[in-house]
């Protein structure tokens, strides 16, 4: 879902010889690019290599927030690589490339590594980084996404968090599989992505091992350490199900469990709409402090306790689980394409409401269309290109969902279902753009949809009523009694895109 973003910093912390080489020449040896080329966040991610696997081993002490780690990265150079960058904010102690010591320097969250030998294009490469630090004290350009709690920490954030606990290629374009090992003092629990493969104790410390075998974006890898009740059982599709609830939830424990424990049911519903669930495990984690948002961490979304203040809230569960398809399996190719994540996850809430009989998607569309007058700032954000400062604006969510209902009105239920299922099947474990989705929608519908998508995604102002825009006349009528789902949707989205 969301975390306030920040630009890469220039606070230098040199750890070895400074090695800032010029860009690589086409066809020759050279360094990888220090960014992935994202127009909103040009410093995020890196070029020159492709990661296939991360092995992350961290030892975390809640008492002083000290983290010590060793991360091994398995990668393949995409060019003859003389130097490369990793995104990392903590202090490296050593870097080895293919077993040999490498020179390195650090500037903000850019860790530049120069191996002893050029890495041939297409070869097997391993990067091993040893490091330590106190993540809650590391600030880069005013940004610190690390969440320290009274009993531990939450490595949860979007679009950045990984640099505060492991080095990597921090952009959704470069997904990888993960082994995450978290060692904490006995009596402390540690939860991460995927399947819990082992737990063992030695000399007062317990190591929790987690594995996810499907491609995962770096910001969707997480861990939560603290005092948790952990429940493990069989979930939907016969998969491992793990849920974790902070001991400090108090009176919110009941509504939190009444919501998150419906995860298998919600996944069964969503798979009936979107197609096969793309991952190997499921569950969720609810924190009692430290965060006021929810995030779709792959296989195991993380929820703030605040979502359950007014009782059970299945809308937020539906939203984060829909992200497993839209955001996790099919990720943004660049952060400009955030509508593909948030618009679809929000519309999934409308479909759930329709199925539960608490308000049809059209009734919800009509409500929100009438709720925002033409001069409301809501209509000044274009979900298809919201701008760096409005990546998580409310319009990306609600106007984004309205776009899909408008598309449904123009192409019909069966065609929309075909578009969505084809999209998640063809883009599975990769990335997509808004333009690619529009092209698919036109292909499947046999219609020219420029008027609809331009009005809803790329033009400031309230889309007018009309057949081409998918806005029916019913949207002009303000209902005396809004759909029953509205209250839950409103309080859910108020937190989802709250700028904290």
Q: Give start-end ranges of low-pLDDT stretches.
A: 2-27
Report how far the terminal alpha carbons are from each other.
12 Å
Major sheet: size, sense and barrel closure? 8 strands, mixed
Look at the structure and give the CATH class of the largest domain.
Mainly Beta
| Arrangement of strands in the largest sheet | 6-5-9-3-2-12-15-14
Strand content: 25-35%
Oligomer: single chain
Q: Structural class of the helices, strands and pairings?
A: alpha+beta
- CATH topology tier name of the largest domain: Immunoglobulin-like
**DSSP helix fraction:** 10-25%
- Output the number of helix runs: 10
Radius of gyration: 23 Å
| Level-2 CATH architecture of the largest domain | Sandwich
Number of domains: 3
Q: Give a count of the beta strands, DSSP E runs of length 2 or more.
A: 23
Q: Please, what is the CATH homologous superfamily of the largest domain?
A: tricorn interacting facor f3 domain
Shape: globular
Name the average pLDDT: 92
Question: Please, could you describe this protein's structure?
Answer:
By secondary structure, the chain is α+β, with helices and mostly antiparallel strands. It is 24% helix and 28% strand. It contains 10 helices and 23 strands. The chain has helices at residues 253-260, 263-274, 314-322, 339-356, 361-371, 394-411, 413-426, 434-445, 450-458, 486-496; strands at residues 30-31, 49-61, 66-77, 81-87, 91-97, 100-101, 103-107, 110-114, 125-133, 147-149, 152-155, 176-185, 189-192, 195-202, 205-216, 223-226, 228-234, 240-246, 282-287, 294-295, 302-304, 330-332, 430-432. The strands form 5 sheets. The chain has an 8-stranded mixed β-sheet with strand order 6-5-9-3-2-12-15-14, with no helix packed on it. Strand 17 and strand 18 form a beta hairpin. The longest helix is centred in the last third of the chain and has 18 residues, at 339-356. The two termini are 12 Å apart.
């Amino acid at each position: 879902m969301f975390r306030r973003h920040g630009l890469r910093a220039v606070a230098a912390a040199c750890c070895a010889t400074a090695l800032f080489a010029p860009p690589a020449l086409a066809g020759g040896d050279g360094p990888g690019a220090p960014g992935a080329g994202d127009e909103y966040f040009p410093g995020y991610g890196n070029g020159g290599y492709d990661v296939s696997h991360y092995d992350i081993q961290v030892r975390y002490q809640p008492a002083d927030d000290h983290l010590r780690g060793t991360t091994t990265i398995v990668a393949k150079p995409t060019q003859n690589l003389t130097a490369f960058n990793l995104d990392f904010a903590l202090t490296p102690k050593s870097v080895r490339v293919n077993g040999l010591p490498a020179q390195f320097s650090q500037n903000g969250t850019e860790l530049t590594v120069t191996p002893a030998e050029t890495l041939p294009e297409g070869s097997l490469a391993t990067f091993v980084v040893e490091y330590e630090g106190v993540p809650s004290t590391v600030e880069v350009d005013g940004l610190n996404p690390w969440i320290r709690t009274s009993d531990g920490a939450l490595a949860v954030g979007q679009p950045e968090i990984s640099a505060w606990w492991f080095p990597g290629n921090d952009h959704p374009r470069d997904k990888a599989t993960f082994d995450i090992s978290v060692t904490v003092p006995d009596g402390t629990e540690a939860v991460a992505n995927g399947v819990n493969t082992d737990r063992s104790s030695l000399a007062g410390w317990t190591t929790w091992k987690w594995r996810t075998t499907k491609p995962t974006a770096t910001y969707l890898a997480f861990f939560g350490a603290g005092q948790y009740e952990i429940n493990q059982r069989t979930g939907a599709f016969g998969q491992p199900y793990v849920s974790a609830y902070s001991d400090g939830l108090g009176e919110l424990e009941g509504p939190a469990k009444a919501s998150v424990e419906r995860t298998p049911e919600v996944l069964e519903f969503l798979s009936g709409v979107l197609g096969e669930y793309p991952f190997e495990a499921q569950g969720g984690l609810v924190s009692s402090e430290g965060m006021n948002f929810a995030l779709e961490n792959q296989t195991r979304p993380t929820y703030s306790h605040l979502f359950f203040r007014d009782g059970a809230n299945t809308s937020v569960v539906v939203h984060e689980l829909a992200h497993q398809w839209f955001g996790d399996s099919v990720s943004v190719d660049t952060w400009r394409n955030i509508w593909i994540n948030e618009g679809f996850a929000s519309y999934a809430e409308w479909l759930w409401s329709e199925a539960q009989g608490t308000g049809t998607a059209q009734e919800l569309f009509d409500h929100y269309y009438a709720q925002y007058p033409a001069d409301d700032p809501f209509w000044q954000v274009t979900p298809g290109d919201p701008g760096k400062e409005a990546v998580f604006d409310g319009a990306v969510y609600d106007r984004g969902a309205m776009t899909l209902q408008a598309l449904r009105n123009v192409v019909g239920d069966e065609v929309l279902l075909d578009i969505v299922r084809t999209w998640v099947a063809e883009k599975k474990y990769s990335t997509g753009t808004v333009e690619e989705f529009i092209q698919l929608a036109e292909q499947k519908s046999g219609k020219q949809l420029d008027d609809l998508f331009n009005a809803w995604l790329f033009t400031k102002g309230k889309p007018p009523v009309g057949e081409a825009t998918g806005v029916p006349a019913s949207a002009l009528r303000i209902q005396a009694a809004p759909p029953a789902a509205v209250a839950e949707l409103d309080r859910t989205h108020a937190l989802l895109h709250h700028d904290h």
